[in-house]
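name: query_chain
kind: protein
chains: 1
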Amino acid sequence: MVETTKELTHAIGRKRGELNITVLELSRQTGVSRWTLDKILSGERTSVRVGTIAKLNDWLYKQV
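structure:
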C-alpha cells in the first residue's frame, strides 16, 4: 500500500474538472473503481495499492 498525497488528489480533481467528467467516467478511463475514486477525492482514503497509483498517474500524464 502507498499513501496518496494532497498534490495527487488535487491534480486528479483539477484534470477531472478541466475535462468536465464524472467520477463514473473517470473510473471508466482509469480502471479504478468509482468507490475508490470517491474515497481518494474526498480524502477519506489515503492508502491505496501501487497499481491504483500507477493507473491514476497514467491517466494524469496521458496526452489529451
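note: The domain at 2-61 is CATH 1.10.260.40 (434 Repressor (Amino-terminal Domain)).
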